[in-house]
Amino acid sequence: MVPRLPPKKMIGADREFIEGRRKSLRRFLNLVARHPSFSEESLLKFFLTFGGADMQHVIKVQFRGIPDEFVTSPLAVQAKDLVPMDTQVQFSNSRDFIRILFNSIAHIKGVSDRMVARSTGLAADMLIFGKELSVLANDPPALSSWACGTIDTWSHLQNGFKGLSVEFGVLADKSQKQGHMEDDCLVEQLQYFLDLLTSYKDLCDRHEKGVLSDHQRALQKMGQMKKRKMTATIQGKEQTALVEQLESRIIEQESEINNMENRNYFSLHCVHMETQLIHANMELLVKVMEGLLSTQVRGHQELAQMWENIAPKIKTLIPPSVKSPSTSPATSPMSETAPSSFR
Q1: Dihedral, CA of residue 280, residue 284, residue 287 and residue 292, to nearest 10
Q2: Most CB contacts within 10 A, which of 48, 141, 177, 227?
């Protein structure tokens, strides 16, 4: 299974795109380095250890002309014996299973993306909340007795808002860290598994559109040659040269078909092994569930504790000794002692 390389963008690559591509490249390297076959490849070892310049050119020169796995693998000669009789049926069933699995994991990943967005959004909201409390604590001009009368509530609120603005900044920071944890423990793990499933789907497509398709075309070509040979044989001696030519080409085609048939069996064997590799990585889903549990329990507990720490400050914004009267002040237009002209 060869994972897909993340796309490049030569123009307009903003910070978000660069960060996304960095994560994609990290997943790509992890998938390749953890693959049982790729991890032993000299090309990968060279790539990971080379410290010089112009790596792309050096790799092309260094590894030019290396044959494919079918030529180098000792299993290729016995591939036919390694493929069970019901492989085609099992292969079809496996593709259906992977399709269902991929769709479900993609939906779960979408939910995880929204969880991260909610945590990031909460961080932004708490930051705005704290900023506005700071504005209220510092920016408004001092109020005169004309506005407040004997009520000193606003001065106490201003003093309290100064401290609360800092607390809401801490809440914002915690929510931002919660989003980062959810991204690392959920989104990245799920995307890694999706990249693995995508590489398996690509492998199946390459098998069907490549090796299997070539084999079928070769068989079709052989059938056409045999049909032409039969027609030429019936026509008699005047077609002897054509018959001999077709016989020679048929022999060559039989050799090519035999080679393609072996490649097809070897490809099926590889697909079989890669299918088992998918199931060997199913434990990733356990890690995802553990990550979901730990991030939510830890995150909500820490946020709850922070809110509990803020609670006393909110309750004491106005000291118990300072109470606003439930009726209008004595000198207000609506009081009993107000001039009759206001009644």
Answers
A1: -150
A2: 177
pLDDT computed for residue 234 by the predictor = 56
In this structure, how many other beta carbons lie within 10 angstroms of the beta carbon of residue 214? 15
Residue type, position 309, single letter: N
Count of Cβ atoms closer than 10 Å to residue 298 Cβ: 12
Helix, strand, or coil (residue 292) = helix
CB atoms within 10 A of CB 178: 24
Q: For tokens 């945590």, name the residue.
A: 119
The CA R_g of the chain, rounded to the nearest whole Å, is 37
Please, are residues 70 and 259 in contact by the beta-carbon 8 Å criterion?
no
pTM value > 0.85 = no
Phi, psi of 37, rounded to the nearest 5 degrees: -85, -50
Where do we find the tokens 């504790």?
A: 305
pLDDT tens for 143-197 read: 777 877 777 888 888 889 988 999 999 999 999 999 999 999 999 999 999 999 9
The DSSP annotation for 221-273 comes to HHHHHHHHHHHHHHH-GGGHHHHHHHHHHHHHHHHHHHHHHHHHHHHHHHHHH
83 to 78, 80, 98, 268: CA distances (angstroms): 9, 6, 20, 7
Pick from 133, 176, 193, 190: which is nearest to 158 by CA? Answer: 133
* Paired tokens of 204: 């199946």
